[in-house]
Amino acid sequence: MTQITVPGVATTLASLTSRMYEGAGTYSLTIPSTLVGNMIWIDGAAPGGGGGAGQNSANTAGGGGGSAGIAVNGFPLSVSPGDVLTITIGSPGAGGVTGGAPATNGGTITISGATTQNGNPSAFPIINGGVAGSPGAAGVGGAGGIGRGSGAGASGAANTNGSSVATAYGLALPSSGGGGGGSTGATGGAGGSSIMWPSAAGAANGGGGGGSGGWWGSGQPGSANGVNATSSPTWSGWGGGGAGGGANANGGPGGPGMVRIRYSA
To answer: If you compute the radius of gyration of the chain from its CA atoms, what whole number of angstroms results?
Structure first.
């Protein structure tokens, strides 16, 4: 605590503490005995969905981009001093392998162990990760992953942009849709943009669709015809959708998840 003096008033200010957890794993936080207000505020981004692979044949169709995961921004959660919170962040969705394993959805975020002042459980909702893009097949680009959450963006069909999210209300924030992969000779659609992040472009001539953006991070642009999407891309933020793979190429992984917890103590 910090003691300050205001004329005629003695006021004690609590310091604001922020704890950040990034990437897949299980983490623990013990709520301090000096907690003020029996409340914490949670920001978070669930992991993004992986991008679909391109058709397993040269110069054909690209895979769809993955969608971003649901996000939360300032979610209030009742807690009690001494509560031990368990924070679990799932893995990002894997990119699809051309002629092999399909892309996968992003994992979830869960937080448990919080209690109210009367000893009842204080529930935090499960935050779902992004949806994987579909592979290209028979000369037709794969569909992008559909956005997550209420009011989410639609996925892009072949050669079509994913739908963006222009407004977001409430505590759980939806994601936009992934762009559809390019059919033979066509350009893949861009991933939908979010309020905070611009769209990620699709690639030309049977290229992959772009991954979609979420509240806390951008998606990855689709990869070119015959070029594998980067397996370890550089991310701007958290939870964005993975790149669709170009024709005869692999898709890319979704963005990592994160949780930030803020409280006064």
So the answer is: 21
Secondary structure E strands in 24-151? 25-30, 39-45, 71-78, 84-89, 109-112
Q: Report the alpha-carbon distance of residue 257 to residue 249 in Å, rounded.
A: 25
d(CA 109, CA 264): 23
Per-residue pLDDT of the chain (265 residues; tens, 9 = 90+): 444 455 554 455 568 899 999 999 999 999 999 999 999 999 999 999 999 999 999 999 999 999 999 999 999 999 999 999 999 999 999 999 999 999 999 999 999 999 998 889 999 999 999 999 999 999 999 999 999 998 999 999 999 999 999 877 678 899 999 999 999 999 999 999 988 888 999 999 999 999 999 999 999 999 999 999 999 999 999 999 999 999 999 999 999 999 999 999 9
Instruction: Show the tokens assigned to 173.
Output: 């924030």
Please state, in angstroms and rounded to a whole number, the distance separating the CA atoms of residues 36 and 15. Answer: 9
Contacts of 142 by beta carbon, 8 Å cutoff, 6+ apart:
52, 53, 61, 62, 63, 64, 133, 134, 135, 136, 158, 180, 181, 209, 244
pTM reported for the whole predicted model: 0.93
- Nearest Cα neighbor of 207 from 61, 85, 109 is 61
Q: Are 65 and 51 in contact (CB under 8 A)?
A: yes
Residue 186 DSSP SS3:
coil
Query: Which helix (H) or strand (E) segment is 173 a member of?
Result: strand 172-173
CA dihedral 90, 46, 239, 219 (to 10 degrees): 110
